[in-house]
Each structure stands twice: as structure tokens, then as C-alpha cells.
């Protein structure tokens, strides 16, 4: 087992108190696995990824353990993590392309970084150049300043530097978000190539873009409001997902070839809950078309099928009672407006006009 | 006559350590937008799409070319005429939060419109106008009025900005990446809203880098690469039957949910071909892939704004020589003749050295650039 | 140069550098967390929250608290000084050059004037000149800075030219020339003179900030709403620079006091009043150094140092408060 996370809880200190951004997350990744960590803004995926590498000033490790290759990672102690950073676990930060010091040449910056890890630049220079050529960067890139390179080139340079010491675990935080579509593909393919060549053993790719994950990830973990919603291998998530949130999320993704006139997309009404005072029970309750009375209790994140974990009462109940039918949250959402937390029976309400989602009565906030 | 015509718009920026170099950000861009039509302007970063949006909104002025709204050249207008222009043409930008002054309440953006355009309207009438505008964007007034911007979600902020545009009699909305900062679940609602408004007659210029979005909502598509139009026309034709290699490579690079990336055969990575990091790529003529036979040159096609204007003689000024117009120059006078640095090139020289590629009509309403 | 817009992340005031961020949203956890909250404090909105946040951090900032306390003390002394001064500062009340004693807490001058009384009167004077200087400099500097920064183009170039010319004029020489014509000068003159020669710094600083703020989307939106330029500058741009302007004012105040003290010491100050600088001037002219009359020139010098230093330290403290990145917590 390459990485094993047990009940991880990480909070942020703010002026108004602590916000638990990651609230009891457990999962594991095998060697050679690329796991996609998906979710919308505020769900905690970035916090989760970053907490495995470096706890920023305001981050607090509340609970839970992280084990990498059998060793416990001292994530609460930044000093202690020093010896693991870049060697065993490395990160490509968000906005990596602007993370390069504009007054340093690329080669010099890499040398400084390596020196801080106790590695002499000379020892690794050959490998460095080999990898630079591998990602199609020109040889003289080490002699260039960051502003002389394009965004995509900077991103690739950062990727090479982050993985130079062959870490066991690489965390990519929204590495493809700010890129053009073609560079996105190149970077995505590069990530898989790094894994294939053994530069990194396993990877966590954090993004809100499920379609990228469908291309490069082996498994996908979906988060919502600090908790886990669903985890399965990529193919299952994309084609046979069970959690209503995942289904609704997939249904809201436009694809080339599909036009509004053919099939209007459906969004998710409402907003994620405030993490200052999260609601009891399932956090997706307010926006879920299948919400029931039982949802006021927190659903456990259990394995409902081999390799497929879901945290949803409806899914548990349906599968336990032997029903194999796959829930379709998207059409359910179209058929009736999600009521605020209570149960909704029947589909008697007329379907909403395809243009906009119907405004629910009173209560629930609008997107 | 189209509602909005962009005619040979070019924009040249000063770059280089001491501003000695000139960088053409837009080169001879021409297209038009009609009533009730969504045109998506698709380009990657550095393509100049945002610049074009700002030029149309007259937040920047072009180095050459003209923007013609309902037959009149917008570049020549004075402050007070511009105020009228903004009654009909408005913009919404990428970062919803930064469009609000954080020190004031969110509905100040609505109040600003009122103080300038409806100073004499009575409170009750204004209130009902507000309500109908908010309803049109599916916002509950109680949720958004009297709140500060950080109390609203990104989706609410964008909708409020669209509502603001609806308060005026807007006919054209320039939407510059308006949903790229919204969550996936809220994007759809704003998108669907745009289509809804389009059906009521609003024209939209949808600027984006995301091909699937452009495909979803637009009637016509313009593909921009490094300031030059490489392909444009009816959306289904451009996406379904892409002819230009750049468009094709963009389409192969788009990640799909249910289909893995196809290998592009050449063995080279997608990015280097498209970004042109290797200067030899894509510099050669493209002619071979487009059947030239019966296709007409875009510049002679009646769809070209210049020809449309000439044939209609609807009080618009006569056909242009295709060059720069002094009226649009900042600071007056023929700017293209000013040299930015001694021995440096002038704007006119830069533009002349890099003329627009020919746009050839591959099929009705589907134009492809040749030789670029 | 970027064609696509680069937008700043958090609206951190007090930043003088141009935008360096990518097209990012406002950052990290704060965004995600605060977007979801439904209720807000009664103080409301960002302006209210900023004030509250400001007070919270202000009270915890040692530099600011200590410096403000010291400054406050001296300001009180300046205001009430003349009321509690034991003697008239100009009258000859005792023997010359007396050591500090119970009767004369800071001794007497060469002429037998009470130094302590002079100090109290002089304090008020120095503050007054400092205030006037800061006022004029900021009025002129801000007007020019905002205009140049917002309009840009030829007007900006012209104003820059003017600014550069004024910067190069040596103020000391100018003052000497003027002083030779104006035999009697008052506090107002000195204040105006200082204002008129120090505004370029303010203009430059304000212009730079205005350039940055001008690129923001909400300014574009204001333009798209047909608002006039003056209205945009006054209502949209300036309030977003409020903390920066405040810092500028404080620095200006401090430097005006110091400059005035310099001029007074050289004998170019007001001819009809006592200020800390003129005290030192007098002391020097009447051989206080040689005669070891330390109580005449050291107290004014020390007081000037303290009040100016306190202002500068307060400035640093304020900068820490306004700019979250400099905070230690």
C-alpha cells in the first residue's frame, strides 16, 4: 500500500473560529495508481492535498494519520516533514507557473532547491537534462528566466523540478486549470508518462475538471463540503456512478458535440453549506433530489461494491434491498424541484422549463 | 446589415524592455453579430480575444479598423454618444467578484445605472423595473438586494451583472469568460440563462477558451489564433467538420468524459504543434487541405461586413480602403505614422508585414483561413 | 506585457507593486469559507468588517500602540502646553544660563528665558507647521497623482514633467532666496512652502496606486455605466486606496515636522514665533555648545527626534496591519 490516510481532519484558523475543511477523510492509494481528487471549490480537496506536504500558517492538523510506504508522515510538524518533502512526497502547487522566482534562472532555482534537500546539482544534472528533453523543453531552458517562457513551458519546468528526486507520491494541485486546451492535454499525458517511467510511484491529481480525470486517472475520489462522497475507479465513476452529487456533477458538464437544442444541461440548485456551521447528517441533503428523513444522520463511507465506496443512504438502502437499478439523479432533478431538506414524494410537479432551474419555494438559496 | 460589425480590427502593443518592440495582438479581425445570435469567440491565451471584447466595448481603442454598431462607427463617438452606446451594448467579465467595488453593497452596480440613465424615474417604477430584471435572471430580490458582494456566490454575482445589463435596453452582451470562475454546477444555470435571453432577442458575444461551452450555446463560432481568425462560421459546421489544422488539433486535445484522447498520429505532442514553440510548425501554407475549387474568397463574399455595408448603402459611410482610420487613434492624428522608437517600425509597417490570411468559404457559412 | 488581464488576488491595500498574480480568484480558504455564510455582523459588509479587523489587529500591534501613545502624549502637551507653561517664553524672567532647577525645569537660555516654556510653545508650533505642510502637499499631490494616474496618455506625461521639475528644484536654495526677500515670515508661509516642495513624492505614490486600481474590473464597469471620470476617481478608486493614503499622510506629517526643524535650525524659519528648530538655532547662535549650556539645545532635539520617530514607527505598524502578508500572527 503506497499511501494510506485514516480519518484525516484538517482545519483553518480564521478570525471567526476554526473551519474544518477536511472532515474525517480516509482512503488509500496503491503503487502506480493515479487517483483523481474531484470536487467543487470549497470542498476541501486542495486542503487535503496540501496538508500532505506542508501545513501553511493557518492550517491545523486536528486528527487522523497519514502513512506513506509504511511510514507515518509527521504532517503536523513542518520541520519534521522537511526530510520527506520533495524526496518522498512532492507537490506541484496551484498556479505553478507563477511560482517561479522571476529574478532567477530556471537552472539556478533548481540548483538551490536541490541543495536545500542535500543534493548537489552536479550529481543530478544529467538526469535533469534528460527529463527536460523528455517533456519537450528546449535544452537551454535552464539558462532562461521564467518570463522568457510561455505558461505551458513554465508548468512543465515546474513539473520536472518537482519530480526530480523521484518521490513516492506526487500531488498535483489544479495543474491543468489555467492552461490552454492543447497544453492541458500535453501536461495530462506527461503526468501519466511520469508514472509509467517510474519517476513517481503514485499520484493525486486535484482538479474540478472530471473530464481530465476521465483521461488520466485510474481512480476518482469525489469530495463534497469536506467529506467524501464517492470513490471508485475512473470508468465506474464516469459511466456508473451512484452518488447523486456525482451524477448531477457529470450531468452538468458540457461536451463537444452536444448543443443546447439537443439536450439542455442541468445544474445543481443551491449552494454548498457553510463550513463554519455544517449541517448535521449528509451535507448534500439540501440539494439532493433523493433526500429522505434518514439523511439527517451522516451516511458512512462504505464499500457498496468491490472497489466502489459511496456515502449515501439511498444508495445503501437500494443496493441492500437487492435493487440493481442505477439511480439517475439528473432526471430526478429535472422532474421535481429539490425541497429544502425534507422528503419529496412523487414526481407530480411539471418538469421545469429547460432554460433555467425552477426556483424552490422560499428557503433554499439560489445559485 | 448586421447589428454589430467588426471590420479589420487590429491592435498593436508596445513590448520589449524599453517598449521598442511592437507586438500585433489582433490582426485584421472581421466578423459580425446579428440580433438574437450567440457568437462564440474561441481562443486560447494570447489569442487576443479579451482585447477584442474590450475594443468592442470601447474600453480600449484599436490600432486600426473599425467597430460598427447599427451602421455607425463607434470609434468616432464622444462621451455622451458613448453613454447611448452603453445603453445597447454591455459587458460582463470573467471574475465576478472583482466587478464589484468591495467597499459598497452589490446593488450599487444597479444604482449606478439608475443615476446615469434613469435619473428621473420614480422609486416605485424603478422598483418594478428591478424586479422584472431580477426575475429574468432567476434571482430572488430578497437574496441579493442590500447585500455586500462577498455575501453573494459567484453565480449570483454574475447573474446580478447580467440583470444590470438588462435594466438598460441591451441588445448586445459581451460575455468575456463569464463562467470560467464558477463551479460546474452553477455554470450551467448561467449558460442556460444566456440561451433563454438569446431567444428573447439578445445578441451575445461569448468569449471563451473552452470549446465545449462554445459548442453548447453558440449559433456561430469564430476561432482565433494569435490574433488572427483561422476558422469561422456556423457552429455545427465548424465543430462537426473542422478544416483548419489548428481547429482540428484543438478538438483532439479536448478531454471527453466518455472517450479517451485519440493519438494524433504524428507522434509529436499536441502542445508543441499548436503553441508553435517549434517555429517550423504550421508556418507553411495550409492550402492543400482546403478544396479551393469553387470556394469564394471571404473578402468577396456578401457575408463580409465591408461588402454588406457597401451593398446596402444604408447611410453608413462608404467602403473603406481597408486601412487605419484616424478617428480611432488615441491622441488624434495618424498614429500609424508615428514611430515608437527611432529606427523602429511603425504600426502600419507592422500590420503590413503581417497581413490577414485569406478566409476562404469552404461551404456556405463556413470559412477557413488559408496560408496560416 | 500581457494581453489577457492579470488581476490581483486579494484586495490588499498598501501594496504599491503592480499586479503580479495570474487570473486567479481571491485566494484559498477565505474565499471558500466566507462565501457560504449567510449572516453577517451588524457592522455589515467589507467596510465594516475592515474596520473591525483593523481595530482587532491595531490593538495587538505593539509598535502602533506604543508609538501612538507617545505621540498622543506630545500632542496633548502641544495643545495644552501654553496653558501650563510657567512663564512667557519670550520674556526675560531670570538670570541667564541657569542650570535646570525646581524653578526652571529646563534651565534658562542665554537671555534668561525659560527653556521649558519655550519647549511647550515650540512644540505647538512645530506640530502646526507639520500639519500645514502635510495638508498642502497632500492636496496638491493627490490631485495631480489621481489625474495623472487615471487619465494617462499625454496629460500624464505633462504632469510627470512638472513633477520632475519640481523635484529637482533644491528647496533649501529656494528658501534662502525667498527668505532674503521676505524679512518677516510666519508659520503659514513655512507650511505652504513645505507643502509646495514636497508634493511630488505624494503625486508619484498616488499615481502608481491609481494605475493599478484603474485596471480593475469594477472601474471598467463604472465606465460602462457612463460614469464621469471624477466620480470614478472619487468614489471608486480613492476609497480603495484609503489605507494607503492614510499611510502617506502620516509619513508626510512626520517629514514636514523634520523639514521644518531643519529650516528653522538654519534660521530660515518663521521670524515671529518660537519653534523647536528655532530654539536650536538660537542655542547655536549664542554659543550654547561652547558654554556647555546643554539644556538649551538637547531637549528640543530630543523632542523632535521622538515625535518624528514615533510617527515613523506608527507608520510601520499601520503597514503591518493593512497588509496581511506582513502580519506576524
Structure commentary:
The complex is a heterotrimer of chains A (367), B (372) and C (329). Chain A is α/β, with parallel strands linked by helices and 367 residues long. In chain A, 28% of the residues lie in helices and 21% in strands. In chain A, β11 and β12 form a beta hairpin. Chain A is globular, with a radius of gyration of 22 Å. The C terminus of chain A is likely disordered. About 17% of the residues of chain B have low confidence. Chain C is mostly helical and 329 residues long. Chain C has a domain of 194 residues: Orthogonal Bundle (MetI-like fold). Helices cover 67% and strands 0% of the residues of chain C. Chain C is built from twelve helices and no strands. In chain C, α4 runs antiparallel to α5 and α8 runs antiparallel to α9.
Low-pLDDT runs of chain A: 338-367
User: How many beta-strand elements of chain C?
Assistant: 0
Q: What is the percentage of strand-forming residues of chain A?
A: 15-25%
Q: What average pLDDT do the residues of chain A reach?
A: 83
- Spell out the CATH superfamily of the largest domain in chain A: P-loop containing nucleotide triphosphate hydrolases
CATH superfamily of the domain at 106-299 in chain C: MetI-like
Span between N and C termini of chain C? 36 Å
Helix content of chain A: 25-40%
User: Helical residue percent of chain C?
Assistant: 55-70%
Report strand order across the widest sheet of chain A.
6-7-8-3-9-10-12-11
The CATH class label of the largest domain in chain A is Alpha Beta
Strand pairing plus helix content of chain C: what structural class? mainly alpha
Oligomeric assembly: heterotrimer
